[in-house]
Prior knowledge:
The chain has helices spanning about 5-10, 25-35, 50-55, 65-75, 110-120, 140-150, 190-200, 210-245, 245-255, 280-285, 295-305, 305-320, 350-360, 385-390, 410-415; strands at about 15-20, 40-45, 80, 90-95, 125-130, 160-165, 180-185, 205-210, 330-335, 360-365, 370-375, 380, 395-400, 415-420, 435. It is α/β, with parallel strands linked by helices and about 425 residues long. Helix content is about 40%, strand content about 15%.
Amino acid sequence: xxxxxxxxxxxxxxxxxxxxxxxxxxxxxxxxxxxxxxxxxxxxxxxxxxxxxxxxxxxxxxxxxxxxxxxxxxxxxxxxxxxxxxxxxxxxxxxxxxxxxxxxxxxxxxxxxxxxxxxxxxxxxxxxxxxxxxxxxxxxxxxxxxxxxxxxxxxxxxxxxxxxxxxxxxxxxxxxxxxxxxxxxxxxxxxxxxxxxxxxxxxxxxxxxxxxxxxxxxxxxxxxxxxxxxxxxxxxxxxxxxxxxxxxxxxxxxxxxxxxxxxxxxxxxxxxxxxxxxxxxxxxxxxxxxxxxxxxxxxxxxxxxxxxxxxxxxxxxxxxxxxxxxxxxxxxxxxxxxxxxxxxxxxxxxxxxxxxxxxxxxxxxxxxxxxxxxxxxxxxxxxxxxxxxxxxxxxxxxxxxxxxxxxxxxxxxxxxxxxxxxxxxxxxxxxxxxxxx
Length: 437
Ligand SMILES: NC(=O)c1ccc[n+]([C@@H]2O[C@H](COP(=O)([O-])OP(=O)(O)OC[C@H]3O[C@@H](n4cnc5c(N)ncnc54)[C@H](O)[C@@H]3O)[C@@H](O)[C@H]2O)c1
């Protein structure tokens, strides 16, 4: 039987069923997109609360507003379960589980392995499995091929496996999963072809590459490119500060060059589940081949020292105002890892908070997206951003430049000292003494 041809027909006719393992920042938008494209989608997660919320039509991901999810759930196009057995009826299974680094900086493939092991008893002929979790080049081949062979299938003939990196940019109003081209590489050409046929039904553009390993490398290269360029922008900020030059003016002016330059901006450090982590997968893989990834290591060193550098600048600002950091009241404004989202993972604001606190500062924070956060093993809660709270501070430190839901006018009116590490208050007037990164 030609399983590939049969699957392609089912995809075209939208009779194929789609399963998504891991309904987080990546999995839930994919599940919604597949359902909006006409597929019946079953999500599997180990988080019982998330399952219940989805089945009530309630979203917990900002990029998937509840009004867009609820009708799909009501029409039976999206449902969620903890039971992997539901995947036995699926034709396509996407795996979007976490791929963190462990404490020693090595990739933790535990979630991917657990997902594959749980899926294994429910594999069937004609199934297409696509790993979307970001990982080191070679993962799909290393982890999936042996498991599939062991289960008695022949990849590329009666079962298909591909890797397709998720490039979602949470909070981006212009580019979502549908209009961001999808790179796809299979373990075999047949795997690439059926995966391409699936994504063609749901996204605007599909970019096939020669193998799953190449598709994995594309994602790592993209994020390594960002990490290194942000590292350069951060070092430029340090250089400009020493030379008495405004780094923002330099980046903005250089950014007017219509070719051969792309602006990257400095900040208090790298955050999120991707940019600080993903280059680590490649560095780890290359260490196993005795090759040192020098660009990655240098960028990691510069980026990871930024919170410390920001705290040094805070100390200098307070010193200039005749104050010590010990005992000073400091409000961090914005703590998520980037603007207008609620994700705190790897946020440099947490490092800055902890460093200030350890030096004796009385720290609090305000973030309209993050009502609480874990700092130094305890929970801090967002304080209201009112005139009195701002006036009570010796210094306000903008760590995340939310563009919505923050009244910077009020901050500039009421703050005494303001350190803006994101350049969001540029051009705004007030009585606060403002220092930029
Ligand atoms: N968040 C992003 O912006 C982004 C962008 C591109 C790529 N990625 C990559 O996508 C992957 C997923 O990231 P995320 O941000 O969606 O993570 P997430 O933590 O938001 O979601 C992961 C989900 O997987 C579930 N899960 C964990 N183990 C499971 C298992 N064995 N079976 C079923 N469900 C399980 C968790 O409960 C959670 O709901 C990672 O590899 C990440 O690097 C993330």
